[in-house]
Design brief:
The protein is mainly α. Helices cover 79% and strands 0% of the residues. The chain folds into two domains: 52 residues, no CATH class; 74 residues, Up-down Bundle (AhpD-like), CATH 1.20.1290. One of its GO terms (molecular function) is peroxiredoxin activity.
Amino acid sequence: MTSRFDQGMKTRREVLGDAHVDRAEANKSELDLGFQTLITESAWGTVWSSDAISRRERSMLTLALLAATGNFEEIPMHIRATANTGASQSDVMEAFQHVAIYAGVPRANHAIKLAKATYAEMEDSSDA
């Protein structure tokens, strides 16, 4: 593997946590190996590994972009990642308010619903 892949795996684990990455790696197959390598090198090894902006800011941007483009399936994963990136619930709500104004209230509303459910799950698991 490349150094960018190695950096991507390191960053991915720091942001998403070992348990998530271990599950994703266990589900990798020959069919999606190339895609998984691309994501690890580009998203995690290049974009998320850059120090040009903070991980807190990256979380906010990522969540806003996911909501604005209607890619809701990854919002819970990135909400859980905020525990590692430093983006607060208030930060996330600010990002979703931008989504409401610039991409539409229904998308922001759905993202907020997902965030609330995910935060509740996170709280429940920390109480256990």
